[in-house]
Amino acid sequence: MTPRYLLILLFAAAPLLRAHEVAADMVAAAQNFLGALTPEQKKQATYALTDAERENWNFVPIARNGLPFKVTSTEVQALGIALLRTGLSHTGVAKAQAVMQLEYVLKALENNKGANRRDPTNYFVTIFGEPSAEQTWGWRFEGHHLSFNFTVVDGKHVFFLPAFMGSNPAEVKSGPRKGERVLAQEEDLGLALINSLDESQRKTAIFAGKAPTEIVTKNEKRVKPLSPEGISAAQLTPAQREKLIALIKVYANRARPELAAEMDARIREAGPDKITFAWAGGLKRGEQTYYRIQGPTFLIEFDNSQGNGNHIHSTVREFKGDFGHDLLAEHYAKEHGRKTE
User: Fold this and answer.
1) 33 touches 275 (CB < 8 A)
2) Could you say which DSSP state residue 133 is in?
3) Would you give the DSSP letter of residue 25?
4) Are 34 and 280 in contact (CB under 8 A)?
5) Phi/psi at 77 (5° precision)
6) Over the range 286-317, which residues count as b (16 or more CB within 10 Å of their CB) and which as e?
7) pLDDT band at residue 2 under the 50/70/90 scheme
8) How many other β-carbons are positioned within 10 Å of the β-carbon of residue 155?
9) 46: how many CB neighbours lie within 10 A of its CB?
10) Residue 273 · residue 3 · CB < 8 Å
11) What angle do CA 183, 318, 138 make, to 5 degrees?
12) Contact present, 317 and 298 (Cβ < 8 Å)
Protein backbone atom coordinates (compact mmCIF):
# COMPACT_ATOMS: atom_id res chain seq x y z
CA MET A 1 0.00 0.00 0.00
CA THR A 2 1.49 3.33 -1.05
CA PRO A 3 1.84 6.23 1.43
CA ARG A 4 -0.56 8.34 -0.62
CA TYR A 5 -3.22 5.61 -0.74
CA LEU A 6 -2.97 5.00 3.00
CA LEU A 7 -3.46 8.67 3.78
CA ILE A 8 -6.41 8.98 1.40
CA LEU A 9 -8.00 5.89 2.97
CA LEU A 10 -7.60 7.30 6.46
CA PHE A 11 -9.18 10.63 5.54
CA ALA A 12 -11.99 9.01 3.56
CA ALA A 13 -13.38 7.44 6.72
CA ALA A 14 -15.09 10.70 7.68
CA PRO A 15 -18.62 11.01 6.24
CA LEU A 16 -19.21 13.97 3.97
CA LEU A 17 -22.48 15.52 5.10
CA ARG A 18 -24.25 18.54 3.74
CA ALA A 19 -22.99 21.85 5.11
CA HIS A 20 -26.27 23.63 4.37
CA GLU A 21 -27.78 21.73 7.30
CA VAL A 22 -25.15 23.35 9.50
CA ALA A 23 -26.00 26.74 8.00
CA ALA A 24 -29.69 26.27 8.75
CA ASP A 25 -28.94 25.38 12.37
CA MET A 26 -26.71 28.44 12.69
CA VAL A 27 -29.43 30.73 11.36
CA ALA A 28 -32.00 29.39 13.82
CA ALA A 29 -29.62 29.60 16.79
CA ALA A 30 -28.44 33.11 15.88
CA GLN A 31 -32.02 34.33 15.50
CA ASN A 32 -32.92 32.83 18.88
CA PHE A 33 -29.93 34.54 20.45
CA LEU A 34 -30.71 37.92 18.93
CA GLY A 35 -34.39 37.57 19.75
CA ALA A 36 -33.61 37.30 23.47
CA LEU A 37 -31.61 40.55 23.58
CA THR A 38 -32.73 44.01 24.55
CA PRO A 39 -32.48 46.65 21.79
CA GLU A 40 -29.31 48.00 23.42
CA GLN A 41 -27.74 44.54 23.65
CA LYS A 42 -28.64 43.74 20.05
CA LYS A 43 -26.97 46.94 18.90
CA GLN A 44 -23.86 45.96 20.84
CA ALA A 45 -23.85 42.43 19.44
CA THR A 46 -24.27 43.21 15.72
CA TYR A 47 -22.08 44.67 12.99
CA ALA A 48 -22.36 44.94 9.25
CA LEU A 49 -20.86 41.99 7.38
CA THR A 50 -18.45 44.36 5.65
CA ASP A 51 -17.25 45.96 8.89
CA ALA A 52 -13.52 45.57 9.58
CA GLU A 53 -14.44 44.22 13.01
CA ARG A 54 -15.28 40.86 11.43
CA GLU A 55 -11.59 40.06 10.99
CA ASN A 56 -10.44 41.82 14.16
CA TRP A 57 -9.90 38.56 16.04
CA ASN A 58 -7.68 37.90 19.04
CA PHE A 59 -7.10 35.40 21.82
CA VAL A 60 -5.62 37.41 24.69
CA PRO A 61 -7.57 39.01 27.59
CA ILE A 62 -8.21 42.40 26.01
CA ALA A 63 -11.24 44.67 25.70
CA ARG A 64 -13.38 43.38 22.84
CA ASN A 65 -16.23 44.54 20.66
CA GLY A 66 -19.46 42.60 20.77
CA LEU A 67 -21.77 41.46 23.53
CA PRO A 68 -20.10 39.88 26.60
CA PHE A 69 -21.88 37.18 28.56
CA LYS A 70 -21.22 39.09 31.78
CA VAL A 71 -23.88 41.74 30.98
CA THR A 72 -26.55 39.25 29.90
CA SER A 73 -28.97 36.89 31.60
CA THR A 74 -28.32 33.19 32.10
CA GLU A 75 -30.92 32.57 29.37
CA VAL A 76 -28.96 34.64 26.86
CA GLN A 77 -25.73 32.92 27.88
CA ALA A 78 -27.35 29.54 27.28
CA LEU A 79 -28.47 30.70 23.84
CA GLY A 80 -24.93 31.85 23.10
CA ILE A 81 -23.59 28.40 23.94
CA ALA A 82 -26.36 26.89 21.83
CA LEU A 83 -25.08 28.95 18.90
CA LEU A 84 -21.56 27.71 19.60
CA ARG A 85 -22.86 24.13 19.49
CA THR A 86 -24.01 24.63 15.90
CA GLY A 87 -20.38 25.09 14.83
CA LEU A 88 -18.40 22.88 17.18
CA SER A 89 -18.52 19.17 17.92
CA HIS A 90 -19.44 17.85 21.35
CA THR A 91 -15.72 17.53 22.05
CA GLY A 92 -15.07 21.04 20.79
CA VAL A 93 -17.75 22.57 23.00
CA ALA A 94 -16.52 20.61 26.02
CA LYS A 95 -12.97 21.87 25.47
CA ALA A 96 -14.17 25.44 24.94
CA GLN A 97 -16.17 25.42 28.16
CA ALA A 98 -13.23 23.89 30.03
CA VAL A 99 -10.99 26.69 28.73
CA MET A 100 -13.51 29.25 29.99
CA GLN A 101 -13.55 27.60 33.43
CA LEU A 102 -9.75 27.84 33.62
CA GLU A 103 -10.30 31.56 34.24
CA TYR A 104 -11.22 30.56 37.82
CA VAL A 105 -7.90 28.73 38.14
CA LEU A 106 -5.96 31.75 36.86
CA LYS A 107 -7.86 34.04 39.21
CA ALA A 108 -6.87 31.85 42.16
CA LEU A 109 -3.25 31.58 41.02
CA GLU A 110 -3.07 35.36 40.78
CA ASN A 111 -4.66 35.80 44.23
CA ASN A 112 -7.67 37.58 42.70
CA LYS A 113 -5.47 40.23 41.10
CA GLY A 114 -6.80 41.39 37.76
CA ALA A 115 -10.15 39.78 38.57
CA ASN A 116 -11.82 41.61 35.69
CA ARG A 117 -9.47 39.88 33.26
CA ARG A 118 -9.99 36.42 34.75
CA ASP A 119 -13.71 36.03 34.28
CA PRO A 120 -15.46 33.04 32.65
CA THR A 121 -18.33 35.32 31.64
CA ASN A 122 -16.01 37.68 29.77
CA TYR A 123 -16.68 35.93 26.46
CA PHE A 124 -18.34 37.65 23.54
CA VAL A 125 -20.82 36.75 20.81
CA THR A 126 -20.80 39.00 17.75
CA ILE A 127 -23.06 38.70 14.69
CA PHE A 128 -22.02 40.13 11.32
CA GLY A 129 -24.81 40.85 8.88
CA GLU A 130 -28.31 39.41 9.08
CA PRO A 131 -28.63 35.67 9.85
CA SER A 132 -30.39 34.33 6.78
CA ALA A 133 -31.04 31.04 5.00
CA GLU A 134 -30.16 32.66 1.69
CA GLN A 135 -27.84 35.59 2.39
CA THR A 136 -24.21 35.84 3.47
CA TRP A 137 -23.46 36.54 7.13
CA GLY A 138 -21.07 35.55 9.91
CA TRP A 139 -20.57 35.26 13.64
CA ARG A 140 -17.81 35.02 16.22
CA PHE A 141 -17.44 33.53 19.69
CA GLU A 142 -14.39 34.92 21.41
CA GLY A 143 -12.61 35.62 24.67
CA HIS A 144 -9.40 34.72 26.45
CA HIS A 145 -7.87 31.66 24.75
CA LEU A 146 -10.87 31.10 22.48
CA SER A 147 -11.69 32.47 19.05
CA PHE A 148 -14.10 30.81 16.63
CA ASN A 149 -14.93 32.67 13.43
CA PHE A 150 -17.75 31.41 11.21
CA THR A 151 -18.73 32.72 7.79
CA VAL A 152 -21.83 31.52 5.92
CA VAL A 153 -21.76 32.41 2.20
CA ASP A 154 -25.06 32.46 0.29
CA GLY A 155 -26.74 30.66 3.16
CA LYS A 156 -25.06 27.32 2.42
CA HIS A 157 -21.24 27.41 2.39
CA VAL A 158 -19.90 27.41 5.96
CA PHE A 159 -16.34 28.35 6.84
CA PHE A 160 -15.13 27.88 10.42
CA LEU A 161 -11.64 29.36 10.49
CA PRO A 162 -9.54 30.89 11.89
CA ALA A 163 -10.03 28.92 15.08
CA PHE A 164 -7.96 29.23 18.25
CA MET A 165 -7.81 27.35 21.55
CA GLY A 166 -5.41 27.94 24.40
CA SER A 167 -4.96 26.53 27.87
CA ASN A 168 -3.36 28.28 30.84
CA PRO A 169 -2.29 26.37 32.73
CA ALA A 170 -1.76 23.51 30.31
CA GLU A 171 -1.83 21.26 33.37
CA VAL A 172 -3.43 22.35 36.62
CA LYS A 173 -0.76 21.66 39.23
CA SER A 174 -2.73 22.08 42.45
CA GLY A 175 -6.17 22.51 43.95
CA PRO A 176 -9.39 20.56 43.37
CA ARG A 177 -8.76 20.43 39.59
CA LYS A 178 -5.18 19.16 39.94
CA GLY A 179 -4.11 17.11 36.91
CA GLU A 180 -6.66 18.62 34.49
CA ARG A 181 -5.25 19.05 30.97
CA VAL A 182 -7.75 20.57 28.54
CA LEU A 183 -5.53 20.19 25.46
CA ALA A 184 -3.86 16.94 26.45
CA GLN A 185 -4.42 15.21 23.09
CA GLU A 186 -2.89 18.08 21.14
CA GLU A 187 0.23 17.90 23.31
CA ASP A 188 0.56 14.14 23.78
CA LEU A 189 0.00 13.12 20.15
CA GLY A 190 2.49 15.73 18.97
CA LEU A 191 5.11 14.41 21.39
CA ALA A 192 4.33 10.82 20.37
CA LEU A 193 4.89 11.69 16.71
CA ILE A 194 8.19 13.52 17.14
CA ASN A 195 9.52 10.80 19.43
CA SER A 196 8.60 8.09 16.91
CA LEU A 197 11.02 9.56 14.36
CA ASP A 198 14.48 8.09 13.96
CA GLU A 199 17.61 10.22 14.08
CA SER A 200 17.65 10.91 10.35
CA GLN A 201 13.98 11.87 10.29
CA ARG A 202 14.40 14.20 13.27
CA LYS A 203 17.15 16.09 11.46
CA THR A 204 14.57 16.92 8.80
CA ALA A 205 11.66 17.60 11.16
CA ILE A 206 13.35 19.64 13.91
CA PHE A 207 14.18 23.17 12.76
CA ALA A 208 15.21 24.74 16.11
CA GLY A 209 16.36 23.57 19.50
CA LYS A 210 14.33 26.27 21.20
CA ALA A 211 10.60 26.75 20.80
CA PRO A 212 9.35 30.17 19.63
CA THR A 213 7.62 32.21 22.33
CA GLU A 214 4.30 32.28 20.45
CA ILE A 215 2.54 30.71 17.47
CA VAL A 216 4.26 32.24 14.47
CA THR A 217 1.12 33.54 12.76
CA LYS A 218 -0.29 35.15 15.94
CA ASN A 219 -3.65 36.77 15.08
CA GLU A 220 -2.84 37.70 11.50
CA LYS A 221 -5.82 38.11 9.19
CA ARG A 222 -4.15 36.16 6.36
CA VAL A 223 -1.51 33.46 6.59
CA LYS A 224 0.89 31.84 4.16
CA PRO A 225 2.82 28.55 4.39
CA LEU A 226 5.64 28.73 6.92
CA SER A 227 9.26 27.74 6.40
CA PRO A 228 11.05 25.47 7.07
CA GLU A 229 8.38 22.93 6.33
CA GLY A 230 9.91 19.99 8.19
CA ILE A 231 9.41 16.35 7.25
CA SER A 232 6.79 15.33 4.69
CA ALA A 233 4.21 12.61 5.12
CA ALA A 234 5.85 10.76 2.25
CA GLN A 235 9.01 10.42 4.39
CA LEU A 236 7.17 8.79 7.29
CA THR A 237 6.52 5.11 7.96
CA PRO A 238 2.90 3.89 7.81
CA ALA A 239 2.70 3.90 11.63
CA GLN A 240 4.08 7.43 11.79
CA ARG A 241 1.64 8.60 9.15
CA GLU A 242 -1.21 7.22 11.21
CA LYS A 243 0.05 9.30 14.14
CA LEU A 244 0.15 12.39 11.93
CA ILE A 245 -3.39 11.86 10.66
CA ALA A 246 -4.66 11.21 14.19
CA LEU A 247 -3.11 14.50 15.31
CA ILE A 248 -4.70 16.46 12.44
CA LYS A 249 -8.07 14.94 13.25
CA VAL A 250 -7.83 16.17 16.85
CA TYR A 251 -7.83 19.72 15.50
CA ALA A 252 -10.35 19.19 12.69
CA ASN A 253 -12.72 17.39 15.04
CA ARG A 254 -13.06 20.44 17.25
CA ALA A 255 -15.52 21.54 14.57
CA ARG A 256 -18.91 20.01 13.92
CA PRO A 257 -18.54 16.68 12.04
CA GLU A 258 -19.94 18.05 8.78
CA LEU A 259 -17.37 20.86 8.78
CA ALA A 260 -14.51 18.58 9.81
CA ALA A 261 -15.42 16.22 6.96
CA GLU A 262 -15.32 19.07 4.46
CA MET A 263 -11.87 20.06 5.71
CA ASP A 264 -10.78 16.44 5.28
CA ALA A 265 -12.07 16.52 1.70
CA ARG A 266 -10.07 19.65 0.91
CA ILE A 267 -6.93 18.03 2.34
CA ARG A 268 -7.49 14.88 0.27
CA GLU A 269 -8.05 16.86 -2.90
CA ALA A 270 -4.87 18.89 -2.36
CA GLY A 271 -2.77 15.79 -1.68
CA PRO A 272 -2.35 14.41 1.84
CA ASP A 273 1.12 13.10 1.01
CA LYS A 274 2.20 16.77 0.78
CA ILE A 275 1.47 17.40 4.47
CA THR A 276 4.56 18.31 6.50
CA PHE A 277 5.41 18.25 10.21
CA ALA A 278 7.97 20.60 11.80
CA TRP A 279 9.15 20.77 15.40
CA ALA A 280 11.09 23.09 17.70
CA GLY A 281 12.06 22.82 21.37
CA GLY A 282 12.20 19.92 23.81
CA LEU A 283 11.00 16.37 23.28
CA LYS A 284 9.35 15.74 26.65
CA ARG A 285 6.18 16.91 28.34
CA GLY A 286 6.94 19.81 30.64
CA GLU A 287 9.57 21.20 28.29
CA GLN A 288 8.96 24.17 26.02
CA THR A 289 7.69 22.80 22.71
CA TYR A 290 6.31 23.92 19.36
CA TYR A 291 5.11 22.14 16.25
CA ARG A 292 3.28 22.95 13.06
CA ILE A 293 1.50 20.81 10.52
CA GLN A 294 0.79 22.20 7.10
CA GLY A 295 -0.38 21.12 3.70
CA PRO A 296 -1.30 22.91 0.48
CA THR A 297 -4.57 24.16 2.03
CA PHE A 298 -4.09 24.44 5.81
CA LEU A 299 -1.82 25.26 8.73
CA ILE A 300 -1.96 24.03 12.33
CA GLU A 301 0.27 25.55 15.01
CA PHE A 302 0.86 24.43 18.59
CA ASP A 303 3.04 26.31 21.05
CA ASN A 304 3.69 25.45 24.69
CA SER A 305 6.57 27.76 25.52
CA GLN A 306 5.04 30.33 27.84
CA GLY A 307 4.68 29.67 31.55
CA ASN A 308 7.85 27.58 31.41
CA GLY A 309 6.14 25.05 29.19
CA ASN A 310 2.73 25.09 30.89
CA HIS A 311 0.70 27.49 28.73
CA ILE A 312 -0.60 26.29 25.36
CA HIS A 313 -1.67 28.25 22.28
CA SER A 314 -3.01 26.39 19.25
CA THR A 315 -4.60 27.50 16.02
CA VAL A 316 -6.05 26.12 12.80
CA ARG A 317 -5.92 28.21 9.63
CA GLU A 318 -6.67 27.75 5.95
CA PHE A 319 -4.79 29.72 3.35
CA LYS A 320 -7.90 30.38 1.26
CA GLY A 321 -10.73 29.50 3.64
CA ASP A 322 -10.10 31.85 6.58
CA PHE A 323 -13.17 34.08 6.97
CA GLY A 324 -14.48 32.44 3.78
CA HIS A 325 -12.29 34.98 2.00
CA ASP A 326 -12.00 33.51 -1.50
CA LEU A 327 -15.64 32.47 -1.88
CA LEU A 328 -16.80 35.68 -0.26
CA ALA A 329 -14.71 37.66 -2.75
CA GLU A 330 -16.42 35.77 -5.57
CA HIS A 331 -19.79 36.50 -3.98
CA TYR A 332 -19.12 40.24 -3.83
CA ALA A 333 -17.76 40.32 -7.36
CA LYS A 334 -20.86 38.54 -8.64
CA GLU A 335 -23.54 40.18 -6.52
CA HIS A 336 -22.15 43.63 -5.99
CA GLY A 337 -19.65 44.15 -8.78
CA ARG A 338 -16.75 44.76 -6.42
CA LYS A 339 -13.79 42.92 -4.96
CA THR A 340 -12.53 42.46 -1.43
CA GLU A 341 -8.95 42.94 -0.37
Assistant:
1) no
2) S
3) H
4) no
5) -60, -40
6) eebbbbbbbbebbbbbbbbbbeebbbbbbbbb
7) low
8) 18
9) 19
10) yes
11) 90
12) yes
